[in-house]
Design goal:
The chain is mainly α. It has two domains: 1-64, Arc Repressor Mutant, subunit A; 76-216, Tetracycline Repressor, domain 2 (Orthogonal Bundle). It is built from eleven helices and two strands; from the N terminus they run ββααααααααααα. Strands 1-2 form a two-stranded antiparallel ribbon.
């Protein structure tokens, strides 16, 4: 493996050996858990370091400060989601199919990595700390793509939305999934319900799709009936007509 150099403000320049890469990945995983559980403000670098068996000072060989560690965690955590949403928005299919694929990507990714939902809630709760910073790099670009798709669908007649902007539909789906994964169980207490079982996730995804179809005015896809099915139905009707009446 070819080594690369890491440059960080106020930090030494290191050759990123395989061991250093593994250590960095471990730090990111530990920091993701801490930030998701406690938020940016309450998370201490000492706790992150202790989780991977390091001294606090050792973190600065990989990340210059807590803000840069947080930024790296967010980039690592949401990178795959951003890429999959990009792929859904750019697919060579109808507008409605692209919208529905994006909904499915969102639900599947958040469910597969629940810490994402908690990171979103923590980020929103600490909005003043992050000023106008989006939750992850590329969020604004994806927002523009979503808006463009919305306008394209309205122009083509594929979308007949309830509202003049896509934010209500986005809020209903994005917010519902974040709360479903990160907050719902806390309200249920000891109730016997696991929102992350395959059955319950499928039900949530079904409801998310129904919600976005309703708010964006997406008509249900017409069932395609094969020639064989039509012929079989015609034979049954004909046979029923020829049958003697009781």
């Amino acid at each position: 493996m070819r080594a690369r150099r890491i440059y960080a403000t106020n930090a030494p320049i290191l050759e990123a050996s395989p061991k250093a890469e593994r250590t960095r990945a471990a730090i990111l995983a530990a920091a993701e858990e801490q930030f998701a559980r406690r938020g940016f403000v309450a998370t201490r670098l000492e706790d992150v370091a202790a989780a991977v068996g390091l001294k606090r000072a050792a973190l600065f060989y990989h990340f210059a400060d807590k803000q840069r560690l947080y930024d790296a965690v967010i980039a690592d955590a949401f990178g795959a989601l951003a890429a999959r949403l990009d792929e859904a928005f750019n697919a060579q299919v109808s507008v409605t199919e692209r919208v529905e694929r994006a909904v499915e990507v969102w639900v599947d990714t958040i469910v597969a990595r629940p810490s994402l939902a908690r990171l979103v809630l923590r980020h929103a709760a600490e909005a003043e700390e992050h000023a106008s910073q989006g939750i992850f790099a590329g969020a604004e670009r994806l927002l523009r793509k979503g808006w463009s798709l919305f306008e394209q669908g309205r122009a083509s007649g594929e979308l007949k939305p309830v509202h003049d902007n896509p934010f209500h539909a986005a809020s209903a789906v994005l917010g519902a999934t974040v709360f479903y994964v990160a907050g719902f169980s806390a309200l249920l207490g000891s109730a016997d319900f696991n929102p992350l079982t395959a059955e319950q996730v499928a039900a949530h995804k079904h409801n998310a799709l129904r919600t976005v179809r309703l708010l964006l005015g997406i008509k249900p896809a017409k069932r395609r009936v094969s020639k064989a099915h039509r012929a079989s139905k015609a034979r049954r009707v004909s046979k029923a007509r020829r049958a003697p009446k009781a």
